[in-house]
Each structure stands twice: as structure tokens, then as C-alpha cells.
Write a structure and sequence with these properties.
InterPro entries: Rib-5-P_Isoase_Actino, RpiB_LacA_LacB, RpiB_LacA_LacB_sf, SPI_LacAB/RpiB. This is D-erythrulose 4-phosphate isomerase. The chain is α/β, with parallel strands linked by helices. It is 44% helix and 17% strand. A 5-stranded parallel beta sheet has the order 2-1-3-5-4, sandwiched between helices. Helix 4 runs parallel beside helix 5.
């Protein structure tokens, strides 16, 4: 069974170059049926939370399956995206955290820092990430369920 993804990409001005390269990679990847770009455009300045929240809301609404966000460190984008109920986002910087973001945590969004890791590593991690699928019958489901139950109790 081949899974295809609908993927959102977004960045502030500090992550523009990486976002563009990753967007182009995704558009060529046969596992990706749709790439939706949430900005920024060249030379545009936008506060990272606006982009992070917009991508996370698209994931939460089911318009896209996954998202890739880039800013200077990746931290602000992850924090912003995690404010949207039902969304799990994390900054990744290596293959192991990439794998575990999906297999242990069912993260739908990964973030990068353009000022933190090299472009080729970021591109490779996105490629790897598309190959991982969360197994809802795994022991990790109960842990992810704790997060979901908390969100539901809090109404967030």
C-alpha cells in the first residue's frame, strides 16, 4: 500500500530559503499529492506565529496531512503549531528524532531552524519523515492518547 501525503510548508523570512528548497523537493516526490505553501514570499516579513498557526490549523481541519515549518531555530514554529488543538509538532535535527516524531508521538508537523542545521540535512530529514507512518496499535498510542484526552478535557 502506497501512502500519499498532502503537505503544507511555511516559513518566516528567517527560513525562506530552506522552505523554498523543501517545497521544490516535495513537489517532485511521488509520495506527495499536494503541496500547499503558507509563505513567506521573497523579501516579505511575517511573524513566525502567524505562519505556524496557519499551517497547524490546516492540519487540524484535515486540509493537509502534514506540515513542514522553518524559521531561524524551528523552536518558535513548533511552539506556535502546538497551540492548535489536535496538532503535535516538534523540532527535529537528526534521523532518530525524525523517526520518533512519528512512530512514538504521531507528530503531524516537523520544524527546522535554518540557522541551526544544514540545508542538505533538512532536505534528507523531510524525505525520511515522509516514509514514517504512526501505528495506532503500537504502545505509543496510549501515550499520545493521554495528550489527546488532556486537550479534550481542557477544551483546547
Amino acid at each position: 500500500m502506497t501512502i500519499t501525503w498532502r503537505v503544507a510548508v511555511g516559513s518566516d523570512e528567517a527560513g525562506y530559503e530552506y522552505k523554498e528548497a523543501i517545497r521544490q523537493d516535495l513537489e517532485k516526490d511521488p509520495r506527495v499529492e499536494l503541496v500547499r505553501d503558507f509563505g513567506v514570499k521573497a523579501g516579505e516579513v511575517v511573524a513566525y506565529p502567524e505562519v505556524g498557526l496557519a499551517v497547524a490549523e490546516a492540519v487540524a481541519r484535515g486540509e493537509v496531512d502534514r506540515g513542514v515549518l522553518v524559521c531561524g531555530t524551528g523552536i518558535g514554529m513548533a511552539i506556535s503549531a502546538n497551540k492548535v488543538p489536535g496538532v503535535r509538532a516538534t523540532t527535529i535535527q537528526d534521523s532518530y528524532s525524525c523517526e520518533r516524531s512519528v512512530l512514538s508521538n504521531n507528530c503531524q508537523i516537523i520544524t527546522f531552524g535554518q540557522r541551526v542545521i544544514g540545508l542538505e540535512l533538512a532536505r534528507r530529514l523531510v524525505h525520511e519523515w515522509l516514509g514514517y507512518v504512526f501505528d495506532p496499535s503500537s504502545p505509543s498510542q496510549a501515550k499520545v492518547g493521554v495528550i489527546t484526552a488532556y486537550e479534550q478535557r481542557r477544551g483546547t
